[in-house]
Design goal:
Layout (H helix, E strand, L loop, with lengths): L1 H8 L5 H53 L10 H21 L16 E4 L2 H8 L16 E7 L2 E7 L5 E8 L14 E7 L3 E7 L4 E8 L2 E11 L1 H11 L3
Antiparallel strand pairs: 1-2, 2-3, 3-4, 4-8, 5-6, 6-7, 7-8
Helix pairs in contact: 2-3
């Protein structure tokens, strides 16, 4: 102990050394706080993605009950993708923790859970890399809220009214697959050439339309309605979505 005291009595900290030590401490503290915030944001992304898809499924299920009699399959095509993305995100957070003390933390490895909310139509168009149409002025109800979402590179816009009222547009580069995420069975299905320019397939019950799908100019489209609408409304929105 005497030897230790002797050595420590010889230690002198100059003002310059003190400033460097304090600066290094502050840098380390700030870096730790930023990393904690990033990890929290990633975890919130998981919760937001799951809540978003749960709300969407519940809303469609409730609308189907209102339309009456249809056998519902609530497992949507997006669910497995969202679940897989959430798992990747969790692994990414783990990797970030392992590398916490490294200078180059792999923060870019995983940035989101695949569902990215946007604040405007313009931001959504920029994120997905193509134009997304604005159908707000043609809604069959008064729009209370509009939600813009980048879904794994596909655009989704949901115009919502009172209660269970909604119209949801999905648009993506046409790869020959159904992008609606709607696996429900409908009593009626037909294809009609709207405006003489696009072939729109409609599905629904009792002469109404709950889902409309079509392709145009290299893109695939899907419109979901709650409650169901008449065919003229579906065709009008399909044509406007394509700029026809």
């Amino acid at each position: 102990m005497a030897k230790y005291n002797e050595i420590m009595s010889r230690v002198r900290v100059t003002p310059e050394m003190r400033e460097r030590v304090l600066a290094n401490v502050e840098t380390a503290r700030a870096a730790g706080a930023e990393e904690l915030t990033q990890d929290t944001d990633r975890q919130n992304n998981i919760t937001d993605a799951a809540a978003f898809e749960k709300k969407r499924a519940e809303r469609q299920t409730g609308t189907q009950r209102a339309n009456g009699g249809r056998r519902t399959e609530t497992l949507k095509r997006w669910f497995p993708l969202a679940a897989a993305a959430c798992l990747v995100l969790v692994l990414g957070i783990g990797v970030s923790t392992v590398y916490k003390n490294n200078e180059s933390t792999p923060n870019d490895a995983v940035t989101s859970a695949g569902l990215e909310d946007c604040v405007s139509l313009e931001e959504l168009s920029e994120k997905v890399g193509f134009g997304v149409p604005d159908l707000s002025s043609d809604m069959p109800f008064e729009v209370r809220q509009t939600v813009y979402t980048n879904v794994f590179g596909a655009a989704r816009v949901s115009w919502e009214g009172d209660g269970e009222q909604f119209v949801e547009l999905n648009k993506a580069v046409d790869e020959g697959s159904d992008i609606s995420g709607d696996n429900n069975e409908y009593a009626e299905e037909e294809t009609f050439q709207a405006g003489g320019v696009i072939d729109v397939t409609t599905k629904g019950d009792h002469g109404t339309v709950s889902l409309a799908t079509w392709t145009c100019d290299g893109y695939a489209y899907a419109l979901s309605f709650g409650p169901a609408v008449d065919k003229d409304t579906a065709y009008k929105l399909a044509l406007k979505a394509c700029g026809k």
